[in-house]
Amino acid sequence: MTAEFKDRLNQELNQFSIKLEDSQIIQFYKYYEILVEWNKVMNLTAITEQNEVITKHFVDSLALIKSVEEISLNPYRIIDIGTGAGFPGIPLKIAFPQLKITLMDSLNKRVKFLNEVIEKLDLKEIQAVHSRAEDLGREKEYREKYDLSVSRAVANLSTLSEYCMPFVKPGGFFISYKSGKIEEELASAKHAIFLLSGKLSSVESFTLDGADAERTLVKIEKVNEISKKYPRKAGVPAKEPLK
C-alpha cells in the first residue's frame, strides 16, 4: 500500500465521516491491484487509474451511507444486483464488515474474479452468485430475504426495480445508484414501483469530491410482498419495462 493511496482514500471518505483501519485500507489496495491485473485480460472496468478508482468506484460505492445512515452499525443482509467488478458490494463489505453480502452477476468470468477478491482479501459472510436477476429472484432462498437490494447497474429505473424488488423483504429497501438528472426517469418508473409493491422513500443527490458528475441515490421502500408475476421471464424487463 502506498501513502498516496491511503491519504487519497481517507481524504475522500471524510465527506461521509467514514474512518477506516489500516487493515481495511490495505484490503482496498489489494482489491485495486487485483482489479487492474484481471482487467488486462477481461473487461471489468474502463476506469483503472488509481485516483479515479478510489473516487468513482470505492468512494462512490460507500456513498450509500448518505441514504442508509445506520449501515455502519447493523448486520444487514444486502444483495448487489449486476455487481460487475464488485461495486458497490465489496467496498461496502470492506468498510462495514458486519454486513452479510450477496454479489450477483450474469457473467461467470466476473464471478470467478469476485471469488478471487473474496479469497485474497479474506472476506467472510459474502458470496458471489452466477445468475440472472429474473431467475434468482424466483428462488425461495433469495426471494424477499434481504434488508437491502442495491445496484449500480446501467438500466432504466423501471427495469432495475423489477430486477431488484423481488429480493427485498417487506420493510426493506431497494437503492439504485444513478448519475446525472433523473427526474424524467423517476417519473416514468412511478407506476412500475407501485406494481412491484414499492413506494419512493427518498432521493439523495450529491457530488463526490474529485468528480464532477452529479450522483443520486434513489431509495424505494418495499411495503408488501410482491406479486408472483414478478420478475417476468429473463430478458423481458429490459425489452418491455413496466409502465
From TrEMBL:
* UniProt keyword S-adenosyl-L-methionine, yes or no: yes
The answer, when asked if Translocase is one of the entry's keywords, is no
Listed GO MF terms: rRNA (guanine-N7-)-methyltransferase activity
Question: Which InterPro entries did the record assign?
Answer: rRNA_ssu_MeTfrase_G (IPR003682), SAM-dependent_MTases_sf (IPR029063)
Its predominant location is cytoplasm
| Cellular localization per UniProt | Cytoplasm
Organism superkingdom: Bacteria
What keywords does the record list, in alphabetical order? Cytoplasm, Methyltransferase, rRNA processing, S-adenosyl-L-methionine, Transferase
Q: What is its EC number?
A: 2.1.1.-
- Any one annotated GO CC term: cytosol
User: Where on this chain does S-adenosyl-L-methionine bind?
Assistant: 82, 87, 133-134, 152
Q: Which Pfam families match?
A: GidB
NCBIfam families with a match to the protein in the record:
rsmG_gidB
Q: What does this protein do?
A: Specifically methylates the N7 position of a guanine in 16S rRNA.
Instruction: Give the family this protein belongs to, as stated in its UniProt record.
Output: Belongs to the methyltransferase superfamily. RNA methyltransferase RsmG family.
Protein name, UniProt field: Ribosomal RNA small subunit methyltransferase G
Organism field: Hungatella effluvii
